[in-house]
Every structure is written in C-alpha cells, then in structure tokens.
Amino acid sequence: MYKKRFDLKYMLNPRSVAIIGASSSPNKVGHVILQNYIDAGFPGKLYPVNTKEDAILGLKVYKSVLNIKDGVDLAVIAVPAEIVPKVLEECGKAHVKSVIVVSGGFAEMGRADLQDKIISIATKYGIAMLGPNCLGVMDPRSRVDTLFLPTYKLSKPKIGSVSFVSQSGAVGSTVLDLIAKEGFGLSKFISYGNAAVVDEVDILKYLGDDEDTKVIIMYIEGVKRGKEFIEIGKEVTKKKPVIVLKGGVTEQSASAVHSHTASLSGSFAAYQAVFRQFGFIVADDLSDLLNYAKAFSTEHMPKGNRVAIVTNGGGAGVLETDEIFLNNLTLAEFDKTTLENLRKNLPVIVAVRNPLDLVGDADDKRYETALQAISKDPNVDMIIAIVLFQTPGADSKVVSTLIHYKNITDIPIAALSPGADYTSVHKMMMENSGIPVYDSPAAVAKSFAKLLEHSRYLKDNGKE
Amino acid sequence: MYKKRFDLKYMLNPRSVAIIGASSSPNKVGHVILQNYIDAGFPGKLYPVNTKEDAILGLKVYKSVLNIKDGVDLAVIAVPAEIVPKVLEECGKAHVKSVIVVSGGFAEMGRADLQDKIISIATKYGIAMLGPNCLGVMDPRSRVDTLFLPTYKLSKPKIGSVSFVSQSGAVGSTVLDLIAKEGFGLSKFISYGNAAVVDEVDILKYLGDDEDTKVIIMYIEGVKRGKEFIEIGKEVTKKKPVIVLKGGVTEQSASAVHSHTASLSGSFAAYQAVFRQFGFIVADDLSDLLNYAKAFSTEHMPKGNRVAIVTNGGGAGVLETDEIFLNNLTLAEFDKTTLENLRKNLPVIVAVRNPLDLVGDADDKRYETALQAISKDPNVDMIIAIVLFQTPGADSKVVSTLIHYKNITDIPIAALSPGADYTSVHKMMMENSGIPVYDSPAAVAKSFAKLLEHSRYLKDNGKE
Known about the structure:
Two copies of one chain form a homodimer.
Chain A: H1 9-12, E1 16-20, H2 29-39, E2 45-49, E3 55-56, E4 59-60, E5 74-77, H3 84-93, E6 98-101, H4 112-125, E7 128-130, E8 136-139, E9 144-145, E10 159-166, H5 169-181, E11 186-191, H6 200-209, E12 215-220, H7 226-239, E13 242-246, H8 254-261, H9 268-277, E14 281-283, H10 286-296, E15 306-311, H11 314-326, E16 330-331, H12 336-345, E17 356-357, H13 364-374, E18 382-386, H14 396-408, E19 413-416, H15 421-432, E20 437-438, H16 441-460
Parallel strand pairs in A: 1-2, 1-5, 5-6, 6-7, 10-11, 10-12, 12-13, 13-14, 15-16, 15-17, 15-18, 18-19, 19-20
Antiparallel strand pairs in A: 3-4, 8-9, 8-11
Helix pairs in contact in A: 3-4, 6-7, 10-16, 11-16, 12-13, 13-14, 14-15
C-alpha cells in the first residue's frame, strides 16, 4: 500500500488562492491567470501578489504572501525563475498549503541548480509544489484554472469524468482543446512539468482516490520513481482505467525528451511490458488517447469478444468487420430469437446476418428493430452502430433511438459516423448523451479491443 | 499495353443528359438527380424522361429516350429494376453513348438473372454502362452530378486534383463528405456498384489518362478482371499515385462483401503483395485514404528519408520523433550552415537540434528563421511543422510563413495541428493553400512514409 506524501486537494479545490506575480498588464502570465479565476467564477478568495501595484482587476494587491492574514490554500507562482526561491520561501513561512510554479527556466534550461534550490525549500516546509515549467491545473467543478493561454485559442472542456495528466504543457493544452470537442468532459487537468516535488506518483494516487474521476489519461515522458509508480498503479488500475501515452518510446527520441522536461525516458519495451502487466492501458498515438478515453468514459465493459455490427452502409460494415478481426475481436452469432425477430420485422431487402446491413435508406424504425433484438441477444458483447449521416434516412431520430438503447443496456455501444458538417452536429448529440462516436473503422475496433483487454484484466484480478 | 474498352468521357463530360425516371415528386431519386444538374449549373442539354408527366422543374418531358431528336451522351436510369432492361434497350436503339444505372435490385439482391439481362443489352449495343446499384458520378468541373442524396446532409467538395473511385455507394458518399472537409478538392467521383459492364479496370484506365486527375484514391471490395487490373495499374502507378483501400481483407468479412456488391474478395495477403509490387499505395483504414491523398495531392516527393521537425511544443516533437522512427524514417542531421544560422538567429532559449523546439511562445518570426534555414539544408528531405495553435504566438502569421516556404521549396512540408475551433480555422487556411495538415503524430509519419515508398518505386522504375 502506497503511503500518500501530499494531499493535492488544496491545489485542486482551494478555498483561497494567491497569485504571485499578478499584474495589470494583460500580456503577463500573472494577469491571465488572475483573469481566468475571475472569469471562471471562482468562489473562494483571490489574493493578487505584486511588489509594485496596489490594485489589479479591482482586487486589492498584497506586497508579499506574508501579508495575507487568512490562510492561503494555493499559491500560483508566475515570476521569473531567479525570484522563485525567494517567494517560495515566503510561501513556506506563510504556511501556504500548496504551490504551483508555472515559471520555466529550471532544469529544462540547464539550471538544475535553481531547481535543486526550490526543491530544498519546498521540502523544508513540506509544501506540495507542482512544476516548475508547467501549465498548472484546471478543474471545471471547483473552477480552478491556472492556464495562462489565450482563452480564444483554447476551447475549454465541460465538467465530466475524465482526468488528464500531462508532463508537457503544450501537449496538455492541445489535448484539453481536443477534449472540449468531445462529449465526455473533464474532471481534472494537471500539468506537472519538471516534477521537481509533486510527481506522477502523487498525482496518480490523488486521482485514484478522487470520486469525480472515472477515467485517468496520462501523457508522460519519464517516470522518476518507477517502483512507487507501479505500486500505486497496481491499486488504481483495479479501481478505474488508466490510459497512458508515453513520449520517447524510441531510442532516438530519448534525447528530445531530456531537453524538454529533463526526464530520463527508459526503454519502451520495458515500460510497455510493465504497464500492461499492471493493468495500464497503453495508447500508441495521441488520437488513441482520446479514442480510448471516450470508450472507457461510458463505464460499460464487455463480457466477451463478440461484436454485433448494425450499419446503413454495406461497405462500411465490410471495413468494420475487417478491423474487428484484425483487432482479435469476433463477430457475434445472433441467437435464434434475434434472427426470428429480425426476419419478422425488417423489410425483405435486409439480409439478416452480422454485420447487419440495414441498407442505404434505413431510418430510425429500422435501427429500432435491429437494436431491440440485438441488445437482448445473449451472444452479443459489444455493439457497433454505423450511421452514415449522408444517407436519406439517417437523422436525429436515429440518434434518439441509439441513445434509448444505450440507456437501457449494459452492453457497450459505439457509433461510427465519419463526415462533415451535418454529421458533426449529430455526432455531438450522441457524444453528449454518452455514446462514443468514431471517425474510422479502426478507431472503433481498437477502442473496443482495449475495453475487452481491461475487462479481462479486472476479471483476472478478481474485480467485477 | 491495356486496350481501352470504353471512353468514359461521355459519362463524365457529357454535352447532353437524359434522366430516365425523372419525376416532379421531390422524394423520387429521379427528381433529386435532375435538380442536382440544374443546381450545379450544368451547361449542356437536360432531357427529363417520364411516361406520365409533361413538364418537370420547368423542363419539357420526353416519353422515351427514343423521342429525343438530338443525340444523348449520357442517360441516367433511375427506374425500378424490372423496367431497366426495357429503357436500356431504348437507349441502345437511340444510340445513347453512355448509361448510368443507379437503380438497385440486381445481383446484390439475388437477381443475377436481371443483371445478366442488362449486361447482354449493354454489350449488344456497345454501351458504356456504369452500375447498377451505384451512386453514379460527380465532376465539379463539368458540373455532372448524379448523386441522389439529400444535399443538406452532404458537403460537396470543391474542384481539385484527387479522383475518388468507390465500389460502395455509402462509403462513396461518406468519403465525398470527408473530402469536402479537406482542402485538396475533387477531380472526379465514380461509384460503380455491381460493376456489371464498366468496372475498376475501365475507370482506372480513364483516370490514368485524365489530365485533371493528379491522385487516384479507390475503395474496392473485389476485382473481377485481376490480370487487366494489374496490367493497367502498372501503367497508371508510374504516372500518378493510386491509393487503394480494400474492403474484405479478412476471411470473415468476405461473405459480407458478397452480399453487398456481389463481389468475390480474394485473399488479402495476395492482393496486398501484388498491389505493392505494382506501385499501388495500400491504405489500411478509411482515415489513411484521406491522409495519404492529402500528402500526395501536393505533388512534392521526398528524395530521401531524412525528416526535419520544427515545433512549438516539446512533447509533440517527442511524439512525432517516435512516430518517425516507428515508420522507418529518420531525423535529418542539420548541416553546418543550418546550425550556424539557427544559432545566430534564434533566441538562446531554443536548443538548436532536430526536432527543433521553438518553445511554447514561438511566433511567426521564429518559424520564419527556422524554415528559412531548414528548407535550404541539403540533408533535409521532408519537413514536419508542428504548430499547436493553443499557444500564445501561433496565429495566421505562422500560417502565412508556412505557406511561403511551401511555395518556394520542393521539399514536402506537412503540418501537425490537433485542436478544436481556433485550430480548425487555421488548419483550413493551410489546407486551402496546399499544406496537408494532420491531427496526430502517427498520421503525418505514416503519410510521409508512403510518399517515400512511392518515390522509391518511381526511382526503381526509372521515373523522376
């Protein structure tokens, strides 16, 4: 059992936040962060700290965190690297409970000395310090947001169940933007940069215990405390899926990793074997990270590998069938009752088999008939509904039918709906109602294969 | 040398079109097709044919194609299957040059007899007949459009250089919709369904000779005349890239193929080996088809496998480096002049190496400096510009810089820019100016690997 070092609740759900380096100049990081807190409607207390100004954005400014009389749960430090040790020392003296250092200019820039200095200060005072060289945190529930990026460039995710941990700030902001395009929403975002004090182990422990987090996705470049990471990972992966994208998997990219977040990236083969063994779900590409998160966020797990495909496009059914088998899944053999129901209730132009091609003019009634029978079939473990919205009969009534069956069955249901504008609108309706929607046959099959892999891992470990 | 059986120019660039089964009822296929021709501003003559009506959409109606006195280049047949033989016979007698049968209800529905009947009629009169059971053709240049799908559901591609051939109608309409989202545009779309007379061999020959077509992408489920397909393929692949997505690659999906377009899908391993040998570019997934088309549509081919990566996100550079090596490409070693230029002109926070991390606040000037040096480096065969638009400095000026260097160099340049709304707008600017933009590190690396594979094929065959 891993022993917790820090409680990150003060960082992610603070009652009071000091912004050290707050500024009235709109281009300064300290200004953007303060503005973010205000814009998000942060319900706690806000203390701008700046040695030279008196009021910023209508708020009283403090010369030092030491001047704030009430306790400070979180201090966000956005001052030049050279000044960070001084203000961090003040945070320690002021009994600030947690600190996020967003400033760069430490180990990643060859200043390991400066990083060592802040580590020793944080350690002396027992401060949970995130960063340096990071974007900090975002939590749409507690309205905490330390991201200092232009808000018009970055769509912000709605409240949801997926937490995202990123060593890299830029990958972090990009994935946040991508999450905003998806329907599953965000629980917590934590960008931890150089991991000088708080690292992936502390974060994994916190999110493992966090009730609002149902799925954890991580972008990591290196793990400093490998043994502890596995120890805590073993616990967490049995409670909730942990999907990991590892940067620096090839020998050649290892040096790029080092200059980026000053991490040492070990052999990928070793990582991957260990990750798999302890139930982590390994993503091979950025797109996988999102695709898998989408599938797992439904919290419906398959009992076996038998897939039913319902489609309004024969060719798409063929391509999906290919991908099913290429990903070691198989097609369900419909049972007698299902076959009888389908034969009785579908028009004669529909050949009753799996994949079930409802033909190009299929409407909601045909999907209704198909899903009613298939969702009750004991031989079906997963359902892929292919809805090509370019066809005459596919509209929001089909969406409504899919949502209905998604709500009344425990079988995982995913949709495949590639397309442009008309499709995007309908895709969003489904995603917002908890149906993961994919753009390519391979993406659905790979995601379902991961669900099955994880379902077997849980079973082997006596869960579910 | 393959001998041409038909000239498809009458189908794709007709001076006169008869729509047999035209109707004044808006829900009828024959109405939608006629309306499409009118909406597209088709410059030739239009003849609605219907036994019961006098005028449709303001046009005089003919009882039979035999009543049309001037010649007919193309007849689109949209009447019930049982009546097709009769109207096809009339087309033969009227010396109609080409016919598209959009109607279904033939071999794919167990009516091989009816299909044989129309084959023998078409053969008797030497008619180039496309279909049955197909969507027909679209050519934004000649304004031919036989698609009978609701126009509001399907974004239509602009004029471009990529021709798309699809056995499946639904896959066809979906990919058309996806092409409309991309910047490369469409030359011709041909959906050939059951391939009763005109088949993939005739189409490949035609598009191989078509000057407006620079890239051919195909979705096929089976090839009827394998020997001829390879014979013509050998010629065409040396002139322009032919990207093939094959449905029914697993044993298990073969029967789904048969009930869909009545094709026999052979062993994939055999297909794939042959495809590769004769220079076809094999796509493994629907998304590959678009990703590869995008890369090839620039018509810039790499001379070697050495990739330069310029990025404003360190983590994204790491992930791209991984994918470069996983796809058997390598990182370029910048030459002395490049290194000197970069060291002299970039701020000290940028570590001069490949991948070149311009750091999170990079603006157009930094990209300018980087691309100016790198695009002239003799050690660089391909450039990947990663632009994460979530960061402060990335805006349309960076887009403008990329377009400038894309215009003055022969080196293939691709961009990696995953993101939501703000990113999408900038992505479209780049695509419209001929820079392929991708959503994931793997997609870029796979596409560049295909460019290189094809460039080597051309070299081995004495081309370029």
